[in-house]
Write a structure and sequence with these properties.
By secondary structure, this protein is α+β, with helices and mostly antiparallel strands. It is built from two helices and four strands; from the N terminus they run ββααββ. It has a four-stranded mixed β-sheet with strand order 1-3-4-2. β3 and β4 form a beta hairpin. The mean pLDDT is 88.
Length: 103
Amino acid sequence: MVIVNTDYIAGQELEMLGMVKGSTIQSKNIGHDIGQGFKTLVGGELKSYTEMMNEARALATRRMVEEAETLGADAVVNVRFASAAVMAGAAEVMAYGTAVKFK
């Protein structure tokens, strides 16, 4: 499966199949929340949350690809990511794009 953030793939003629998306809501346990809360006092990267968001993006992308595969897609173009906090320590990540088939 080809995944790109452009609306084309060089050398390919594309047939649009439709929008596909994948999403997840992730959180860290209370121990990580407390530890990361102390980190905000001194500054620096919140590595536990960086890891959480990387895992969430990977899962959302995987779910988007699975949806594209059910449509018989060869690729997903114009891929974008969106995120939003849904509560303290939890975030939603969505991956979306256009499923296409090569002509």
